[in-house]
Amino acid sequence: MKSPKWPSEKVLSFPKKLQEEILDEIPKYDKDFDEYINTWKLESDEPVFVLNEEILKNNIDLLERTPQKYNDIININWGINVKTIKIVDTHDLERYGRYAKMPKETAPPSVMIDNSISFGSARCIASLMRKDDGLWVWKIKTK
Description:
single chain; 8 helices
């Protein structure tokens, strides 16, 4: 049986830069993801700036999956006390530190779905480590 077309028409309906971000994260057809993406509604055709204070309110679980040495920096910067519970994505754990040394202007927008950072999480962690005011995101709601 042949796989359905990927990227799907839904992916192709998004702005080119968002398409690239999706295809970087999901390079081949995934039935569950394809069904999930059909629930998405893009809030703006351009990325929007979201304050890191708002990001922190809805993304503590992201920090709980981040190595503690980076959380220690974030905790000091933002006056919080988050502990690592379980690191899920073990791909290149040093990228957080490298990204934090890069100027914030070099980071492409992350993807925020229902106020949760879903793609580009290392960019978000780096932004919190630098104590940036906020982060550019593609803001998506599910139907």
